[in-house]
Design goal:
The protein has about 220 residues and is of the alpha/beta class. The chain has eight helices and nine strands. The chain is globular and about 60 Å long.
């Protein structure tokens, strides 16, 4: 099957497979069946087999999956061995919290090369002891010189919307987006993962409230 036809739902499950396999690998597990992996991940074995078959399938009948090999293969599919240049726009509390996670970008296929903010209090400060926050007005010139392809957006929705056309025109075609503005609405040839913290909290609210109703 061509990877171009892989559904979004399958793509969204790949990082979870990668994470669980990493845990197994660190625990010394060398092989695992789809049934055992499904039990740990609380999905069905057929779901795992169907998902992996989108990329050729990796198991052996009677043996299961080689954990190290499958972890490596899924990592390559996800592109964790790449170093796509990225910038952070918005170095306030959210941006700094994201930056505070060790090797967040390096282990997931990206290399952070710049950070920007418009607040005089934040400009000139340092993130992770090595990345100096630059003025937002310098984004255009920086992108022309260094050609980042991905941007982490940690600014308000209105500010993101104002900046969107400029960023896309500068060659940024991927967005990890916390702003609430959807870049794909206007620009068809970009990729975006929109992180809505409020939506995830509402999902939890639903689960808690309906669990309480069921128990009652």
């Amino acid at each position: 099957m061509s990877t171009k036809s892989v559904s979004t739902s399958v793509i969204n499950r790949l990082p979870r497979y990668y994470r669980y396999l990493g845990i197994l690998l660190n625990s010394g597990v060398t092989r695992i069946s789809s049934k055992e992996l499904a039990h740990q991940m609380k999905v069905t074995a057929s779901q795992i087999r169907q998902d992996l078959n989108c990329f050729g399938g990796f198991g052996q009948q009677g043996y299961g999956y080689n954990v190290e090999m499958l972890h490596k293969e899924i990592g390559q599919i996800l592109g964790v061995d790449k170093a796509i240049p990225a910038i952070l726009i918005g170095a306030g509390s959210l941006g700094r919290s994201i930056m505070g996670q060790d090797d967040l970008f390096q282990k997931r296929g990206f290399k952070l090369i710049g950070a920007f903010d418009k607040s005089p209090k934040i400009i000139g400060t340092t993130l992770k002891d090595w990345l100096v926050v630059q003025p937002a007005d310098d984004i255009v010139e920086f992108c022309r010189q260094h050609h980042p392809r991905m941007a982490v957006i940690c600014i308000p929705r209105t500010e993101a919307e104002k900046l969107a056309e400029t960023l896309v025109s500068l060659g940024i075609d991927a967005f990890w987006n916390f702003s609430g503005y959807d870049f794909t609405y206007r620009f068809e040839n970009v990729s975006a993962v929109n992180v809505h913290l409020g939506d995830s909290l509402l999902t939890l609210s639903y689960l808690v409230n309906h669990r309480d109703e069921d128990e009652a």
